[in-house]
Amino acid sequence: MSVPAHDQSGFGRSGLSRMGAVCAALVLLAALMVADLMTGPAGLPLSDVLQGLRDGPSGENRRLATILWHLRMPQTLMAALVGYALGIAGLMMQTILNNPLASPYTLGFSAAAGFGAATVILFGTALPVAMWVGVPLAAFAATLTAAALVYLVARYRGASPEMLVLAGIAVLFLFQSLQSLLQFMAAPEVLQQIVFWLFGSLLKATWTSVQVLAGILALTLPLIAREVWNLTSLRLGDGNAASLGLNVDALRRRVLVLVALLTAGAVSFTGTIGFVGLIAPHVGRALVGEDHRFGLPMAGIMGAVVLVAASVTGKLISPGAVIPVGIITAIAGIPMLLGVILMKGTK
Amino acid sequence: MSLALNNFTVHAGRQCLLQIDSLTLPSTGLFGVIGPNGAGKSTLLRALAGLVPHGGSKRLDGGWPEASRIGFLPQNFAVSASMSVAECVLLGRRERLGWRISAHDRSEVARVLALLDLSALATARMDRLSGGQQQRVLLAQRLLRDPRLLILDEPTSALDLHHQLQVLSHLRTLAQDILVIAALHDLTLAGRFADHLVLIANGRLGAASTPDRVLLPSCLDPVYAIRSELLPDRDNSPVVVAHQAG
Predict the structure, then answer these.
(1) Residue of B nearest to A232 (CA)
(2) I need a labelling partner for A112 at 20 to 30 A (CA). Which of A183, A304, B203, B216 fits?
(3) HEC string for chain A
């Protein structure tokens, strides 16, 4: 019996079948996004959603256009973009830390974002900018500050996975402690706002936040594309990768900056959404293998799939008071995390 | 045309790990680096590969090959990634790969896999191979770089006897056109396959010459702290038998 050429060559699933897997994942994502547009306090049938999409934001049916384009579309797009950013960032973090349990938040970036947001929520009235601008801006700046601290340690003490994790743990505890201090100082109604932000919710999404995150992705994706073979080589271990002429420390520092930008863009507008950046890379790797040419887009798409699915689930469980997606991904993520740990243990 | 090291030093802080005042060898051939544990063999190889900074100069044919023409196989090579053997070997051309894997790249991978008797393992997962199989795959990966200089830190350490002979025979063939420098622990194999031996002791150059001039009790015994006996095999290569000193 003849064996297909790509099987004999040993290049795993051929590029074509991997592209097929990526396309199938995109179709699934598109279907979930339509489902997300259909669900909400005012349920929309599929025909209305398709009609509304055809008519555009200035369609004649003003009620439909308002619900679809002004309320739901930014949240749906934000879910997809945040999931995509966290999925890609998660895979890059797992690769540079050589740790399957790493995520975009491993180095304390989410704690920093929480601290930045809490600072503005607490002292925001004294600032010259509106809260909706100040909170994401502060969360973004705090995340980049945390990344800069880790980067500085990596610059002067070497960017080994151990050193990065140690620096990340220090940053995590620093910002968690500061965040706790702010929560301790806050009045009950302000504390409620801080806690709601930390839950991670798509209700904060606007067209502005969609545009900003899309801009960050447009900026970072070409830079990430340049690193695909370097990241795949790093999967061979530091010694082998360095032996292939790869400057491992410099690669880790470059990727750290890219992860920080993606994570900052994602959490600043939505709050902390856990487990997406941990689970999506594993699903992506299982579907397309270790080759980061396919692994990175697939991890991103699976991140988007998980987050949009969480959004649909949240609205189906409680249409009136939408459960924040951060809570749903955390609850759903625990069995997934246990699955990853058990699979790793039985390998 | 030669390999020349002059005032070649490697330091870790203030400690001098390696000091070679002068060493000149032909620019092609298989050179075995021998010496006891901790003598500085790996340090020398890593410095030649450009992985640790060094003082002094190193020259090969008057210059030094660019990084993409140097193939270095480290001592600790274990791979835990689940990629296939062919995908792993392909990474040997990391600097030259684009988004599409060309037919030329695929045929080159098939060629080096066949060279090392690995074609049957092309589809196998790296993390499911034995240490010896991984070592041969990674050697194939380095060969894909079309190296001018191949530096191997104990390339036969995980191999069975059959594959030790196969790999060393292949390295000897390669060494007709390029320079292969390999740290070797088995002195008998080193004497049989290497064109020249470089003996390192306590971070210094103990001897550098053809095997028949290095594999002598007067060179080996003080460095290894043994009492050695050299017996000729049927090809007249020396078999090194070591006895405890004293």
Answers:
(1) B91
(2) A304
(3) CCCCHHHHHCCCCCHHHHHHHHHHHHHHHHHHHHHHHHCCCCCCCHHHHHHHHHHCCCCCCHHHHHHHHHHHHHHHHHHHHHHHHHHHHHHHHHHHCCCCCCCCCCCCHHHHHHHHHHHHHHHHHHCCCCHHHHHHHHHHHHHHHHHHHHHHHHHHHCCCHHHHHHHHHHHHHHHHHHHHHHHHHCCHHHHHHHHHHHHCCHHHCCHHHHHHHHHHHHHHHHHHHCCHHHHHHHCCCHHHHHHCCCCHHHHHHHHHHHHHHHHHHHHHHHCCCCCHHHHHHHHHHHHHCCCHHHHHHHHHHHHHHHHHHHHHHHHHHCCCCCCCHHHHHHHHHHHHHHHHHHHHHHC
